Amino acid sequence: MSNLNHTRTHYSVIVVGGGQAGLSVSYYLKQLKLDHLVFEKNSLMHGWKAERWDSFTLVTPNWQCNLPGHPYDGDDPKGFMTRDETIAYLNTFASKLNAPVREGVAVNKVETDANGVYHVSTSDGDYTADQVVVASGGYHIPVIPRMAERLPESVFQMHSAQYKSAAQLPEGAVLVVGSGQSGAQIAEDLHLAGRKVFLATGDAPRVSRFYRGKDVVEWLDDMGYYKISVNEHPLGKNVRNNTNHYVTGRDGGRDIDLRKFAQEGMELYGLMTDYDGEYLVFLPNLTQNLDKADATLNNINARIDAWIEQQGIETEEGPSVYTPSWTPEQERTQLNLAESGITSILWCIGFRPDFGWLDAAVFNGQGHPKHDRGVTNQPGLYFIGLPWLHTWGSGRFTSVGQDAEHLSEHIAAYQRRVKATSEEAVPA
């Protein structure tokens, strides 16, 4: 990687964010010989180093790791890289690329002047650019509900972004709030560590890890699912609001079955809505949440069955439908906090975006940017690395490079127009 000194202040392109998305853009800008600078307020790949727990693994198989010029080349393509292996993969990518990066420099403000030039105010001075690429992702502010303020000080609280292992938490039971991808995996991690776990579920769907002899990801890839654009998806752009399916790559990969955890002693509840000073309060929707997750799993498997039949594929396993191994005897809507033995609460309910530093009329009412495959309606402003920017893989290692290449072509075309306009303005 290349950490540059502050020797110039204007660039054709400034990229905000030094993760895999920002560096993928840099890869193609270097190929196009476009001068640019990448700002990263922490260190390269900071999110992967700081916000992943010790037992974390990718939930997508290694063969899907295909950053520009850096496909996975290890000896376990159908396996799932651990946290440390993922960081090593990303560090190698950064080293090979040697991007023009300023690490430890925060972007505080981006705005445009009357001529459409971008003014970028940073913690290390002011810069200008013809174009700006926002590659800082969409997961900025950890979501912790206001009810957390009313919980007793004796209860330790932490967001999933801070979690590393059960050893961080005081002795006693743990309440995990949220059953999305992080919540389900962290609940499993604590469960396997021997902790008493209470899990407040949500409406996250789940998916089989393996089905009919192959990883479900392989089947979906064969079926062309990962090539479907957001504009072609049945849900359209609403698919961007979907919660990720919970599954794990741990120990070679397996399903996450919350019903199985319940049989082993984990206590499951519906959506947590309040704390009244004595009781934690939940909606009576645990059964609904579990049934909905299982229905999604069965629906995906049924689509795979149809594909197998349509293509005449021979497999050793026949179609199967998941049937519940455990169902709640009753819906419990209250839990006495003091009597439960809960000493820690882990909030696994996601993040919200924070683009307050970007002065541009490109955001919807929820603070999310409006764009067409990363291209906004403001000339010279782009986004990359967001979920379903274009396809399912846009926010993942599998397709972020394709999005980067697409944006770089737009950037190059725009830069040619900037140059032509500048030359026309110069008197003969």
TrEMBL record:
Instruction: List the GO molecular function terms.
Output: flavin adenine dinucleotide binding; monooxygenase activity
Signal peptide span per the entry? none
Question: What residue ranges carry the coiled-coil annotation?
Answer: 283-310
Asked if the Swiss-Prot or TrEMBL record annotates the protein with the keyword Oxidoreductase, the reply is yes
The protein's matches in InterPro entries, at most eight in alphabetical order, are given as: Auxin_biosynth/cation_transpt (IPR050982), CHP04046_FMN-dependent (IPR024000), FAD/NAD-bd_sf (IPR036188)
Q: Does this entry carry the keyword Coiled coil?
A: yes
Q: Pfam families attached here?
A: Pyr_redox_3
Q: Which UniProt keywords apply?
A: Coiled coil, Oxidoreductase
Put simply, this protein is called FAD-dependent oxidoreductase
Q: Which organism is it from?
A: Marinobacterium nitratireducens
